[in-house]
Automatic annotation (TrEMBL):
Annotated segments matching region Disordered: 117-172
Name by which UniProt lists this protein: Conserved domain-containing protein
Any one GO BP annotation for this protein: photosynthesis, light reaction
Domain of life: Bacteria
UniProt cross-references to Pfam families, sorted A to Z: DUF2382, PRC
Compositionally biased spans, kind Low complexity: 117-148
Protein species of origin: Blastococcus mobilis
Domain called PRC-barrel: residue spans: 6-75
DUF2382 domain mapped to chain residues: 157-269
An annotated GO cellular component: plasma membrane light-harvesting complex
Length: 280
């Protein structure tokens, strides 16, 4: 469904009928002054786009390809010839409702007749036509003046602006993990070792040892052996626990500046002082 927020996207789009056949291109969108909603779109047809026809936009769909309207190309081709400059009169709109077989056209025309409102163009720079129908600055709703860009509401215009709401959200920034691996390093230790060495001792023959000296033959060959010992380093390794390692988290807070452009509406007042315009 086409709303007032998508009017700017409609203008200039290719227009296709209900079967997908291209009709032409959208030129202007007309709003219903009573509801403020888009009611008609003018479609440029012909070889050079010089012919414009009114097509209902109430139940149209805006897609990536263009605007699809719920009527056929032949219907648009033979639509009533109505001047696209200015506004639709209640009689012209009733004729279009009747031609396209749109229900509620008679009631709408009656409403327009009693309230003296018509359908105006949106986004084309024209006025709503209140002066053309002979109405005063105070319409039947009792408001002062009238809106030239949509349905008349009250005697005030709302000015809006964007406000910046800044918050935070949590998201994953990375992952930390513990990984254990084996490395080999050389360790040097000094170990004291002892060994036995042979020392030759000579003692003279005395009365104390003469007995041992004379034991055995006087002259003979003899061999005496002594076993020597020594210590050698012995290396033995064992695995022992030395520490426990774990991952822990802590929260740190820092200040981050956010820069964003905000839109706001401004209101110009024309006609209050003819020598200058005043901006609010």
């Amino acid at each position: 469904m086409i709303g007032t927020d998508t009017i700017s996207r409609v203008i200039g789009q290719d227009v296709y009928d209900e079967s997908g056949e291209k009709i032409g291109s959208a030129a202007e969108v007309y709003l219903d002054d009573e509801t403020g909603q888009p009611e008609w779109v003018t479609v440029r047809t012909g070889l050079f786009g010089t012919k414009e026809s009114f097509v209902p936009i109430r139940n149209a769909d805006l897609t990536d390809d263009g605007l699809r309207v719920p009527v056929s190309k032949d219907q648009v081709k033979d639509a009533p010839k109505i001047d696209t400059e200015g506004h639709l009169s209640p009689q012209e709109e009733e004729e279009l409702y009747r031609y396209y077989g749109m229900g509620g056209g008679t009631d709408t025309a009656q409403t327009m007749t009693t309230t003296e409102t018509t359908t105006g163009m949106a986004g084309t720079g024209t006025t709503t036509g209140m002066a053309d129908t002979g109405t005063t600055d105070t319409d039947t709703r009792g408001t002062v003046g009238h809106d030239t860009s949509g349905p008349t509401t009250d005697d005030a215009m709302t000015r809006s602006e964007e406000r910046l709401n800044v918050g935070t959200r949590s998201q994953e920034a990375g992952r930390a993990r513990l990984r254990k691996y084996v490395v080999t390093e050389n360790v040097t230790e000094t170990v004291p070792v002892s060994r036995e060495e042979v020392r030759v001792e000579r003692e003279p023959i005395t009365d104390a040892n003469v007995g041992n000296a004379m034991d055995g033959p006087a002259i003979s060959e003899e061999e005496h052996e002594v076993v020597l010992h020594e210590e050698t380093p012995v290396v033995e390794k064992e695995a022992v626990p030395v520490e426990r390692v774990r991952l822990d988290k802590e929260t740190v807070t820092e200040q981050v500046q956010v820069n964003e452009g905000l839109r706001k509406e401004e209101i110009e007042v024309d006609g209050v002082d003819e020598t200058r315009d005043r901006r609010i």
